[in-house]
Design a protein that fits this description.
The chain is of the alpha+beta class. It has helices at about 15-25, 65-75, 105-120, 125-135, 155-160; strands spanning about 5-10, 30-35, 40-50, 55-60, 75-85, 95-105, 140-155, 165-170.
Length: about 170
């Protein structure tokens, strides 16, 4: 069963918010991922992403990166996905996400690869590269970000400065 949104702040039918969030995700290819670790503190990076019908986002990263090391220590993250506004301060569209994030293994890796190839068809078409991602044998890995809470703003569709918060229920 797909996820549902339990709106905790703001007034709007949950289905309208869901359509707004999914529209923003569909129109953007890059997210900003924020992680933190005990030794080197907070870190943000950009990553191409894909997502599925259960509001799980997937990205690919080298295991040697700072954010991958952070996720290996603490499987929590925040992310933003936004669309550039046509004019400064007007028609804002974006979503802030928090949840659990970690390397994808087994069926989760298969789901990650399917979602990623659905969005980026040329990705991992070589059978050896595909197997490296599925087995976890390569330097790069598939990661999953399971959204637990979000704050969305979609001014053209949901109203000006209408910041809506919701918990994701699965």
């Amino acid at each position: 069963m797909p996820y549902r949104l339990d709106i905790t702040q703001g007034e709007l039918p949950a289905e309208d918010l869901r359509k707004g969030v999914e529209g923003i995700l569909a129109e953007s290819m890059v997210l900003t991922l924020a992680t933190a670790g005990p030794e080197r503190g907070p870190h943000a990076n950009l990553a191409f992403f894909a997502y599925d019908d259960d509001l799980v986002l997937y990205f690919v990263s080298e295991r040697s990166t700072r954010h991958s090391a952070h996720l290996a220590e603490e499987a929590r993250a925040a992310a933003t996905v936004f669309l550039p506004p046509p004019v400064f301060g007007e028609q804002l569209r974006g979503v802030q996400l928090t949840g659990g994030a970690c390397e994808a293994w087994g069926r989760q890796a298969e789901a990650a690869l399917a979602a990623y190839q659905g969005r980026y068809p040329a990705f991992a078409q070589d059978p050896e590269v595909r197997e490296q991602f599925l087995s976890g044998a390569g330097a790069a890995a598939l990661y999953r970000f399971q959204v637990e809470e979000l704050t969305a703003v979609d001014e053209p569709n949901l109203g000006r400065r209408n910041y809506l918060r919701a918990a994701v229920v699965r």
